[in-house]
Amino acid sequence: MITPLHSSLGDRARPCLKKKKESGWAWWFTLVIPVLGRLRAQTIMKARLKGAQTGRNLLKKKSDALTLRFRQILKKIIETKMLMGKVMREAAFSLAEAKFTAGDFSTTVIQNVNKAQVKIRAKKDNVAGVTLPVFEHYHEGTDSYELTGLARGGEQLAKLKRNYAKAVELLVELASLQTSFVTLDEAIKITNRRVNAIEHVIIPRIERTLAYIITELDEREREEFYRLKKIQEKKKILKEKSEKDLEHRRAAGELLEPANLLAEEKDEDLLFE
Amino acid sequence: MLEGAELYFNVDHGYLEGLVRGCKASLLTQQDYINLVQCETLEDLKIHLQTTDYGNFLANQTNPLTVSKIDTEMRKRLCGEFEYFRNHSLEPLSTFLTYMTCSYMIDNVILLMNGALQKKSVKEILVKCHPLGRFTEMEAVNIAETPSDLFNAILVETPLAPFFQDCMSENALDELNIELLRNKLYKSYLETFYKFCKNHGDVTAEVMCPILEFEADRRAFIITLNSFGTELSKEDRETLYPAFGKLYPEGLRLLAQAEDFDQMKTIADHYEVYKPLFEAIGGNGGKTLEDVFYEREVQMNVLAFNRQFHYGVFYAYVKLKEQEMRNIVWIAECISQRHRTKINSYIPIL
């Protein structure tokens, strides 16, 4: 049914519309697609409904796949963070050990920094159509601190370097997991929003339009039927009227019966019998 | 130099020797260490240190107390004591004390050179320099553009000048790897110090020379150990060994050819002083070579106090105090990081 654009009472008088939260004329468009009530429109609408439903199912599948991956990543993040805590503690302690034996080498190390030895490459991973960034580390260049602690504490420094290298690798992995986590979260929200939009807005709209078309068609059919009936009645009346007329004229004798070829006994035109 | 120096020693240096022995008596004992190890937080540690000779040295520190603050305060204290000794000393004790500061000066100079080359601000580096190694021309370092400039303008005035001349010609200062430079400077410093002590003769030579010889041998061993697997070639390695000590000259030649730890151990087994040290490595405590060397150094330094009328007491005191500082910092780190498994791996002194 088409609801009128304005009403003095507004939505309050129409209980079926009271639950609509939006106001203004925009929501009216969401109720029903403006379309003429034709049969062709009905087939079109049916096709659209089918399309919407298929779309909704596909999106739901995508959302499920993304959620599955999301949970896996979450589990991995928790594990990596726990491991990170342990590794950092180890590394901090080995720093203390190295300081004990080698003295204070921090300024030398900080001053000699020029190029990064561990670098990161960004790669792309695809999950159900969502691209996730993945970071991979690689080593480049030689160790410029090879000779630090040559006279004191070389062993502890080597151990320290190893521990912190492990920590850096773990950090890179954690970074990659966390970016995937955030990207997936966004993607899942968007997909779910779409699914909900189709399910609660588009499909009902199409269904309502279909219902409207069907009612229009029914009404038209009823109209036709009514018209037919009226025409029949009128025809009947006309027919009765003309028969009555005929009776009268026959009775008045004005009307000459046309010669009935079959009924006549004698035919004047026949010369010979 | 003088026979019967016992007669004349106290005239010039008696006061300072008495002072240094008093300071030595206030080093932390085993009981103090046991108390410190049982602390749960750094605040407890501070309270325990207040009962020792350290007193209220941490009283002005704001919260939170960190290990680096403790370290800086202790170092300031040691510096103060050392400056007092130096200011009140006469020749030849003052030259001896200057020699002691040379090792810190070498570290500071390397730091400054590096900083100047990288165009870092001098103020930041000055803060990081070791206070015992201060010399007057430090602030002027940033004027120099290249290391040779640095040498000609500034380092020529410091006591380090002869060491630079020993190592290399001035032109070669540019290309040399900083670490190699540091080690070469240290080698020539040790050699000069050794000659000075030997020429002084008397009890000082008797006490200081074994200590310095041990230092030279220790450097040779550690450099060899740490250069396995690096790009340091054998010839380069040989130039870093000081030219004195028990290992000189055959041991050093053998060490230069060593390829791994076991070969080093067999070389050490020839010398009956080092044989038990190498055997003590590993075991239950997980001691490394450096740990056993530290212990031996502490032993020798403590023995130096058994003789009187020599300058070795000053050297020994400073070294022992440094070791004590390292121990306290180690215990403090273990406490603050809550990693108490190795808290007992400090080196006990008394």
From TrEMBL, chain B:
GO molecular-function annotation terms? proton-transporting ATPase activity, rotational mechanism
Its cellular-component GO annotations read:
apical plasma membrane; early endosome; phagocytic vesicle membrane; proton-transporting V-type ATPase, V0 domain; vacuolar proton-transporting V-type ATPase complex
What InterPro entries does this protein map onto? ATPase_csu/dsu_sf, ATPase_V0-cplx_csu/dsu, ATPase_V0-cplx_dsu, V-type_ATPase_csu/dsu, V-type_ATPase_csu/dsu_dom_3
UniProt record similarity statement: Belongs to the V-ATPase V0D/AC39 subunit family.
Purpose of the protein: Subunit of the V0 complex of vacuolar(H+)-ATPase (V-ATPase), a multisubunit enzyme composed of a peripheral complex (V1) that hydrolyzes ATP and a membrane integral complex (V0) that translocates protons. V-ATPase is responsible for acidifying and maintaining the pH of intracellular compartments and in some cell types, is targeted to the plasma membrane, where it is responsible for acidifying the extracellular environment. May play a role in coupling of proton transport and ATP hydrolysis. Regulator of osteoclast fusion and bone formation.
Q: Subunit structure, briefly?
A: V-ATPase is a heteromultimeric enzyme made up of two complexes: the ATP-hydrolytic V1 complex and the proton translocation V0 complex. The V1 complex consists of three catalytic AB heterodimers that form a heterohexamer, three peripheral stalks each consisting of EG heterodimers, one central rotor including subunits D and F, and the regulatory subunits C and H. The proton translocation complex V0 consists of the proton transport subunit a, a ring of proteolipid subunits c9c'', rotary subunit d, subunits e and f, and the accessory subunits ATP6AP1/Ac45 and ATP6AP2/PRR.
- Record's protein name: V-type proton ATPase subunit
Q: Which organism is it from?
A: Callithrix jacchus (White-tufted-ear marmoset)
Gene that specifies this protein: ATP6V0D2
